Amino acid sequence: MSNLSPEFLVVIPARLGSTRLPRKPLADIGGKPMVIRVAERAQESLAQSVVVATDSPEIQAACDEHRIECLLTSPDHPTGTDRIAEVAQLLKLPANTLVVNVQGDEPLIPPELINQVAQTLANHPACAISTVAVPIQDAAEISNPNVVKVVLNKAGEALYFSRANIPFVRDPESTHHAAHLRHLGIYAYRADFLQAYTRLEPAPPEQAEALEQLRALWNGYRIAVHTASEAPPAGVDTAEDLERVRRILAS
Question: What is the reported pTM?
């Protein structure tokens, strides 16, 4: 296990066509578009470079204005992962390059969490992907299908991700059941996996659960999981979230 920080780059997929919050990446937060706030947080990490990947000339113009590197990608990508794979191709990244996917609606993401997901992948050479989980503190989240749960093996790799209550505690009186873990949607990938991913067919459990990381597990790729002690501030899905983030950054 290396203590030296690995080299990695951050890619932020951003598209204008958000359903719940129209034009979300360009939403103003304290005088800057949200996608710029996200990129600036990512620049505080140890990443060698930070790139926004978009299908929108408007987002590209905002990035140019704030001197953030931006690549215009195809409008036809079904997932953010496919968009990042195109970036890896455009930049001709060597096979073992570590690429961290930071969601474009996470303006409060801790830079340390970005470093940690890259370090976790560097520490697990047999894994193609790394991601993050946190212990669930609120019992209501265990049965909430909007909260994705993950179960790990003893090496800290994902056995399965689900919207269901996993692991199911058969005997609530027992003292032997494992803590429930909530999955957070930040990933690091090896560049060669990104190219392979675009050729994989959607997997039955992925389609059932609507969780694209299950496509990797279904095809035998291993996912290392860093367990963080606490969840980072929530991202922006709704107008209320946007107001909350504006208040936090204003203070």
Answer: 0.92
